[in-house]
């Protein structure tokens, strides 16, 4: 790491932080995936976490996932909140016994020295009502700031995790702000360079934050979104049905768990957009969440009947 | 005597669970030992974020030997009987048995079975794995490769290692060997995660605690708390400041560190413009830090104290810097909320309450505010408040729920409303009521006294109670999700501590019937059977009450159909709620030391729906019974009631008519004449006094009965030979009973 050029230093470069984490987790045997090519609310939605957490097969992966939370948009005016941000996600199944040490190792790799920084594991139970998932773990504090989520998945899509996976989620922007010592996300140095070659987070994303905030809160076509929600829901159910193993066939595996799950992700994002537009009442809200959860559960059940889910041919 | 040392080393245990877990561990282990006959001298359990530890001192080396004699068959019995005896007693030949004799049975065999006590470590090795496997964590989890198998070990977070040693202090103790789901017990533990991460071999508690201390782990939570408190006060003092103590926070932070190091940080003075409660809540909830105040002014200082888990190489500079950053960001948010919130007036926020569902069947917060405002206005004259102010306060009372600040910190509800109301120039009573209408929150919380606050606080709670009673969502057993018991206690305390006279039954039914939305009642009407059932049975036999026709006319005006049925339904539910109040009042009065039998004696009377009058009556009754007159009258009452009971049973009829004064005058003895005269006067006086709510006066009136009642029993034979005279004397006794009923049902009084 000492041979790293200065512009790759996680304390100076946002992309340097990402690359350092990728390298560190690659060393731990993770496959380094690229972001899932769909709009999701959190890294957990990536099938590499949600679906791979189910079934008996060992699995280790790490990836950056752009995450969209339409409601959190602030038109680029709040230095700490974004409607689109990055999560760095690590999943290890089964969790190795030294996962806490591995996590602390990753902090060290990005320059957080436990000789001067106060690292704490503070109780935080994780639950995703839309995914029918829960786990126990902590929020990890560095000098009083939450820098990661650490969760031992107990259930996903309504199914017991067997074995249990350990999941780590780093909030990259917040972590980078701490490492770089800046007070606004938009002031983050993205590429680690200086002078006129320096590119900031604001250069890359400020305009997007403004435009998407407008879209999410004021202009998103709600009629279309409602329609897309219904379509995605129907498509998910249809693909699940079409992919069911034929009765009498020797192969009892499900054939389309992944395409069906894409539609579940889509429905979830449509719901988030509708929610941000304020067109879903409090009572309806619960029923929408339940509808997405039903899809997620059905997809989880289908996944367990695939090879990836551990089903025999 | 030997000691047991047990340590269960895991990943970070939630702070809120540690103390309880340590106590559970101690109880489970010592109970299991005692159950097997192993007594001990003392036990103490400890918890840190990463371990539970237990020290049991003074255990025996082994259990007690057990010697048992078992009688067998007679000497010379058939071989089958002998063989069965040998087998049952575990003997290999009959020579091992003793021969005894008694006169009846003659000579017979006796087996002596001796079971040596089991070695304590063996018993421990049997007990402990079960305790670990079934440990009562509030939430537990599976982990790692082992979680592939069903039934794998569950713990609060992954369990890593177990230390278990047993032995006397003079020798090296032995490791109590057992395995739980692949984790083998041993004598190795670890120190502080960062300050002394290496392994440590331990022998017994006496070296375990100091070894850990050297490895920067303080195992005793209370000692960690003392360290934090002591250092915090010192640091504050050095700056001329005072720590704002917070026991809950102290307990929590002590559960987040193995080696507490208190550090002081500061923030920009400009943030002190934010209300102090907000600063404290932000710093406490998000950062788990203490705040400080200036002892001279009592105002918050721009400093905070954090408790780190590290003796940092740079003296804590980095840690303080990091925490200051976060505090700054949090306070910036708070300041932003504080400033933005002020841009929208509270009344302009009401529209937003339409989107907040209070309860599916009871409507939105907006609808609720409408009801509370109407009820507050109605209550205002009764509690001495200006109706317009009470209505205004009620209308604004929930508006802060849709402010940014309360959205972020729900625990600041009410308080923020008060701040914003003050800033927008509301009447001070209105502003205060917005905060205080939630009070009292518990048995020890302050009860508001400003009449405007009292009106809104009562309206808020009564609406909640009546609403949930209307939809039949009452508390059951330990389940009370809407805190209805607390609400009822709140009403009781508001009424009693402010000396308010409220006719509850009308209040409990009328406003809700008038103001709740149609759809609720339409639902009741759809459940026709329910209304009909109420029609037939529940109302039959109830004492007529003006509330019932009132309700009926309300429902008629609302044109909901079956006004009579709805009125009865609401009335019956209100009566049920009233009896809930009676139960809560009993609990409250019992806690205040009142005699429960006196409470029952007053509640047994019809139409008791005024809490203040009930309590006054109970108090007056208690004082009266403590006097000699009272005690004697009670004795006289009992004698009268006993005789009546026996004679009425014998005759198969009641003597509840008024006594015939003609018979008294013509045939009666002087004592019964006197009694009749005094009874008549006492009854009238007592009734008049009760009417005037002068319960002391009513008791005084009754006390005049004592002497004539005593003389009557002394001199007059109730069971006269003349049947007419006898009947009339029984009626006189009944009249004594009737007279006492003006103040209470004396039959409920014990002792």
From TrEMBL, chain A:
Keywords: Aminoacyl-tRNA synthetase, ATP-binding, Cytoplasm, Ligase, Nucleotide-binding, Protein biosynthesis. CDD domains: GlyRS_alpha_core. It comes from the Bacteria. GO terms for biological process: glycyl-tRNA aminoacylation. It catalyses: tRNA(Gly) + glycine + ATP = glycyl-tRNA(Gly) + AMP + diphosphate. The gene is glyQ. Tetramer of two alpha and two beta subunits. One of its GO terms (cellular component) is cytosol. This is Glycine--tRNA ligase alpha subunit.
Automatic annotation (TrEMBL), chain B:
Signal peptide: none annotated. It is found in: Cytoplasm. InterPro entries: DALR_anticod-bd (IPR008909), Gly-tRNA-synth_bsu (IPR015944), Gly-tRNA-synth_heterodimer (IPR006194). Residues 635-738 form the DALR anticodon binding domain. Tetramer of two alpha and two beta subunits. HAMAP family: Gly_tRNA_synth_beta. Belongs to the class-II aminoacyl-tRNA synthetase family. This is Glycine--tRNA ligase beta subunit.
